[in-house]
Design goal:
Strand order of the largest sheet: 1-2
Distance between the termini: 51 Å
CATH architecture: Alpha Horseshoe
InterPro entries: E_motif (IPR046848), PPR_At4g14850-like_plant (IPR046960), PPR_rpt (IPR002885), TPR-like_helical_dom_sf (IPR011990)
Helix content: 55-70%
CATH class: Mainly Alpha
Order of helices and strands: HHHHHHEE
Number of helices: 6
Protein name: Putative pentatricopeptide repeat-containing protein
Shape: globular
Number of strands: 2
Largest sheet: 2 strands, antiparallel
GO molecular function, one term: RNA binding
Keywords: Repeat
Structural class: mainly alpha
Number of domains: 1
Length: about 130
Amino acid sequence: KVYGLNHELEHYAAVADLLGRAGKLEEAYDFISNMRVEPTGSVWSMLLSSCSVHKNLELAEKVAEKLFAVDSENMGAYVLMCNMYAANGRWKEMAKLRLRMKKRGMRKKPACSWIEVKNKTHGFVS
């Protein structure tokens, strides 16, 4: 109000991202949940990434459900959650999520790398 700026999604997203990076995950979750604009999948994705960095699987599960509600095709979020489940030895939850992905026809795209050696290009897929 002081500077005559409207609160746009980008402003909220920046604050939420800063809170998440600082490890204030619950505060970021509450902030996003109470925004004046509807949070997008990218806003929830930022918090999910912070949950992964700070190893907060409990909150990550809540965030993932919010994220999947607004962006059910977010492959990165599915992969991140699977990795978090695996890191915590929660194999059943990981398998359920993989099955959910399979039912939706979602597959992780393989990564490709190229290297040039003696004017010859070699490609690798993982």
